[in-house]
């Protein structure tokens, strides 16, 4: 099953979701009756920037619709920002005040729900923890916070809810892939299924850059400054180009799909900084393209391995045609076989849309007692992932290169599938590519280290996984 456009995505939600639109409108226990028809749900938002502004706009625009849907009037009562005097690019709702004091929201007993869209992992952590402790439901878009503190948040929720009659809820749909409903999908639509592989283009900035470099022939620097100008890059772009943003998201998806908690640093992570024009030329020669992909998959014994890396993606892969800042997540599973969710991974309205879905679900009284899904007792994490690999080696011309490559690979048990060589345009760029059969990455590292020490090797070897079992047959 593949859903590759907005219409299909809509259908997916309508067909596969828990029939949210038809659920009876239950009034959240902490809401206050303000009229004969509707109770009042008061919301405090931390952050009035890109996402915060979008949330306020959508809540105001669809107020009546949400009243009918939830039985509650959703009121943004206070917004906390860093600088209250800064002009805002959205209209403040009637009766809403702007503050710089956290306590104005956290200690306001009339506020039922806190939406944290200010970012960071220090003050945002205090805000989220304090809100939960004071019995307020929390919605956040903060993947960095969740990736860094997931087990701690889980424990905090268990401690708090163990002492309460009505559980406080924690929702974070916007934290992974912005507008794509991947969190709720993994929480509710794969419960009877077994996910075998999660692979995704989960960083819009790098996908935008790789598309610009591959399709439009832009240099790395040109692509990065264009991505920054369009607001696709994080404040510190190392998080994007180094693969670290994608790794935080993959960590969250792994917990939801497999029940495993992995330290982020234990997930092998390579960014896009070592890619050169040559790699795009070879990828074209092979008929595919290069994408930064996060992959987590079940290995033969049921354990899970993972990595974030630029990957060769063949033309028949559903990730191949995902260009620009678009995100996509492909789930291969036992029952559904193959499901791909594609959409906007960032931006004001896509991200706010996901926050709104969480807010409305809470206002309806929907429950998600285990926001990270149950932990698995027996699934272990395997750090040494296996794949077919692409190894690019720059060389100085001499005799015996092919023989030495063969000998080095044989020494480490690496089987070579093919050797590719483009016509040499500049001597300094002379390079060839080895494609290997499936092998653990540790072996590839050993092969690369040994090849780099050989006399003909002209600089560091570069390797990346080749995705898909059938990449060779998809070659043109
Ligand atoms: N933008 C996206 O496309 C996107 C996508 C997915 C997830 N997210 C996540 O959503 C969150 C918000 O992102 P954003 O793009 O909306 O950020 P943003 O445009 O920079 O807005 C941040 C807002 O938070 C306020 N703020 C920041 N630090 C604060 C502090 N210490 N105390 C009080 N207020 C503070 C800022 O106040 P001032 O306005 O006064 O400076 C600003 O209004 C982040 O966690 C981000 O990772 C964003």
TrEMBL record:
Gene Ontology MF annotations: homoserine dehydrogenase activity; NADP binding
Stored InterPro entries: Asp/hSer_DH_NAD-bd, HDH, HDH_cat, HDH_CS, NAD(P)-bd_dom_sf
Domain Homoserine dehydrogenase catalytic, residue spans: 181-360
Residues spanning the signal sequence: 1-21
Keywords: Amino-acid biosynthesis, Methionine biosynthesis, NADP, Oxidoreductase, Signal, Threonine biosynthesis
Source organism superkingdom: Eukaryota
Xref: Gene3D superfamilies: 3.30.70.260, Dihydrodipicolinate Reductase, domain 2 (3.30.360.10), NAD(P)-binding Rossmann-like Domain (3.40.50.720)
An annotated GO BP: threonine biosynthetic process
Keyword Zinc belongs to the record: no
Pfam families with a match to the protein in the record: Homoserine_dh (PF00742), NAD_binding_3 (PF03447)
PROSITE patterns in alphabetical order: HOMOSER_DHGENASE, PROKAR_LIPOPROTEIN
Catalytic activity: L-homoserine + NADP(+) = L-aspartate 4-semialdehyde + NADPH + H(+)
Pathway annotation from the record: Amino-acid biosynthesis; L-threonine biosynthesis; L-threonine from L-aspartate: step 3/5; Amino-acid biosynthesis; L-methionine biosynthesis via de novo pathway; L-homoserine from L-aspartate: step 3/3
Xref: SUPFAM superfamilies: Glyceraldehyde-3-phosphate dehydrogenase-like, C-terminal domain, NAD(P)-binding Rossmann-fold domains
Ranges where the Aspartate/homoserine dehydrogenase NAD-binding domain occurs: 47-156
EC number(s) from the headed UniProt entry: 1.1.1.3
Family per similarity comment: Belongs to the homoserine dehydrogenase family.
Record protein name field: Homoserine dehydrogenase
Annotated organism of origin: Cylindrotheca closterium
